[in-house]
Design brief:
With 369 residues, this protein is α/β, with parallel strands linked by helices. The chain has two domains: 202 residues; 94 residues, no CATH class. The protein is 29% helix and 25% strand. The chain has eleven helices and 14 strands. The strands form two sheets. An eight-stranded mixed beta sheet has the order 3-4-2-5-1-6-7-8, with helices on both faces. It has a six-stranded antiparallel beta sheet with strand order 9-10-14-11-12-13. Helix 5 packs across helix 6 and helix 10 packs antiparallel against helix 11. The longest helix has 15 residues. The protein starts with a strand and ends with a helix.
Length: 369
């Protein structure tokens, strides 16, 4: 039986998760979707969709979708749904897990890797993060959960962009890209987004693509000091004043007393603890050295490593080696062969909380053949 794809929907309160979910649940798309509200005992936000009393609440919707509110273990709910599906009691093609606004999607994603029983039935497709453009800067400043949700994302949907200026939106996109250059960012209006952009994103596939926003790499090319020693190069983190990106975005609030000072909505500079960096090397890696090094850093920094992925040039194989991880869980696989004439460059992106780039970089350099 094919594995059931799972999408994890995350985002802060008010970011529009429920609006997107309602749309997914009520539209006639012919898909049978089971939604799990992973609540952890919080007040259920959307009682009109999910009016249920008992502990095991599975509610069939008119278009064939199913809702299931869980106040206890996610694992139990997934097993229950898989068992009912096998017995033909419920029918669904995929699952969406909606996390609470304050949840860290990491442990939810890890469930699908760590638990053999769950891994036999389900396959995690992607983590989708909704970001409320109007309140995002404040939330990202104040709450690490919000920053983590951005770091984990495979796809970011920006909501409420009609409530902010073009300059503020651009500054926010810039900020998000530095936290997570892997995830495409797209503005959506009231959850109105084609389902093809919500499902089957294959964010966790070990595929040979490593999508990093190209502007992010370009900015790095000219922005900063590289450590370019004829082999590895590390693109540095970006918390040194971005003022030059935002100058043109300043706008004054002129509708107040003319004596008042100019308010700059984004203080040109957010030193977020969730950051990303990209490492590239043209020399091949020594497989044993790299494995030892990655094993060691995942052991030490795993809880702070949100997502990481790489397409690697390994000594001793003509094929690309694809690796990725969430927290302490890391997997790798052989990809396609390097094509004739293709530059055999290893590229890795690490997204995490205050990761010590110099230690990572030095260890990666020392793992080159």
């Amino acid at each position: 039986m094919a594995l059931i794809p799972v999408s994890i929907l995350t985002g802060f309160l008010g970011s529009g998760k429920t609006t997107l979910l309602k749309r997914v649940l009520s539209e006639s798309h012919g898909m049978k979707i089971a939604v799990i509200e992973n609540e952890f005992g919080e007040e259920n936000i959307d009682t009109d969709i999910l009016k249920t009393e008992s502990k095991e609440q599975i509610l069939q919707m008119s278009n064939g979708c199913i809702c299931c509110t869980i106040r206890e273990d996610l694992r139990e709910a997934l097993q229950l749904l898989a068992a009912k599906r096998r017995k033909g009691l419920v029918e669904f093609d995929r699952i969406v897990i909606e996390t609470t606004g304050l949840a860290d999607p990491g442990p939810v994603a890890q469930t699908f890797f760590m638990d053999d029983e769950i891994a036999e039935s389900y396959l995690i497709d992607s983590i989708i993060t909704l970001v409320d453009a109007k309140h995002a800067n404040q939330q990202l400043d104040d709450r690490q959960e919000a920053r983590r949700q951005v770091g984990f994302a495979d796809q970011i949907f920006l909501t409420k962009t009609d409530l902010v200026s073009a300059a503020d939106k651009e500054a926010l996109v810039h900020r998000l890209k530095h936290m997570n250059p892997r995830a495409p960012i797209q503005a959506v209006h009231f959850g109105d987004v084609p389902l093809s952009e919500v499902f089957d994103l294959r964010g966790f596939n070990l595929n040979a693509k490593l999508d990093i926003d190209p502007d992010f790499l370009k900015a790095d090319e000219h922005d900063h000091s590289h450590c370019d020693h004829d082999h590895g190069k590390c693109e540095h983190d970006h918390d040194h004043g971005h003022a030059h990106h935002h100058e043109h975005g300043k706008h004054c609030d002129h509708d107040h007393a003319h004596g008042a000072e100019c308010k700059h909505p984004h203080h040109h500079h957010h030193d977020d603890d969730v950051k990303s960096f990209v490492y590239r090397a043209s020399r091949p890696f020594d497989p044993a050295k790299l494995e030892d090094f990655l094993g060691a850093i995942v052991n030490i920094y795993g809880p702070r490593m949100l997502r990481y992925k790489g397409v690697l040039n390994m000594k001793g194989t003509e094929r690309k080696v694809i690796f990725q991880g969430v927290h302490q869980l890391m997997g790798s696989d052989l990809g396609p062969e390097w094509e004739a004439g293709e530059a055999r460059e290893s590229r890795m992106v690490f997204i995490g909380i205050d990761l010590p780039q110099d230690i990572f970089k030095q260890g990666l350099e020392q793992s080159l053949a």
